[in-house]
Amino acid sequence: MRASRVSATLGARVAIAESGRFGGTCVNLGCIPKKLFSYAAHVRDELKDAADFGWTVAEPTLDWSKLLANKDREIERLNGVYERLLVNAGVSIFRGKALIRGKNEIEINGKTLAARHILVATGSWPQRPAIPGAELAITSNEAFHLERLPGRALIVGGGYIAVEFASIFNGLGVATTLAYRGARLLRGFDAELGARLGEEMGRKGVAVALNCNPVAITKQENSIRVEFNDHTRKSFDLVMFATGRKPNTAGLGLEAAGVKLGADGAVLVDNYSKSSVDSIHAIGDVTNRLNLTPVATAEGMALASTLFGGKPTPVDHENVPTAVFANPNLGSVGLSEEKARERLGKVDIYKTAFRSLKHTMGASEEKIFMKLVVDAASQRVVGAHMLGPDAGETIQGIAIAVKLGATKAQFDATIGIHPTAAEEFVTMREKSV
To answer: Which of 242, 204, 240, 235 is closest to 41 using CA atoms?
Structure first.
């Protein structure tokens, strides 16, 4: 989308092939519907908190069909917005799957087109593990279109999608189990964040089972039976795999055109998103670099600038902020403590954990956690991490400072906004032992 529109504004003649709905994974089967579901799931906590502030609230009930209908209406609106943006930019639209027939040729619905440059931005697709009965489980794709909510759900995985959907189902009133084969959630994030998130999700009612993995699934009359690696068996109404995604490159004709692919099927590209064939480029999840929507759009803008703007622009994947919309939310930018020690040697760590002012009015034991990772030699803040309400909103601002190379002294010199949770990022003074 972004690459097409920007290229067109720079004077290129652009065509886009799309066999589905505009907006890609993010709009249709990812960020947007997931965040809408996350908002819905958080309402239960808000209603619990309301009583602590003197409100009398009746026992809530959820109309799942209404939530689905409202979500679908918003997605349809966005599909239309994106299509209009393409049309208004002068992009030609071809409805159908594109197949690459050579370094400068594409086939769409039996018609061959020629292009000086070809861009592959076909995204990725959820994968199921190779265990007996895996076909009885759903993936995140199907989770957005369930006819009814299950009574008991098992979510398998320990990454973004797994913890987000475990929080969503739990918040919507489903008895939810999260099973992960590893020792802590969110591998690749700061270790403390993953450990603390598991604890907080457990307090909110998610049964978090670590070092636990299903080995077989069978269909029973009214449920799904799951056997785990410790030989235990449990029954659920729904099983969802969130165990990874694979780049969508199969059947596109890439290899026949000479494009080199990785072992996982990802298109191998250089810093300018160029593949092993000079005329063929790739961006987004299909390259399996940093699989985030804003990263893909940045890659698209950089490519347009490189090809048509007269400015060769490499993609900068350093210090990209991200958020995980579990309950509680998680926000992160820069290096984890583990990565910083590995890369820089000596680091200073500042961290804090506290109950929010909002929760001091009631019995909630939920704690906000914040951490700064500082390069001991230069005193630059090289990592900032948060677990707590709206963590992504807070980290977005902190990310600017980290990207600019702000020092701990500059953080300290910034006056906080009181009373907020965010002010803790500029008031932490004591190093962690």
So the answer is: 204
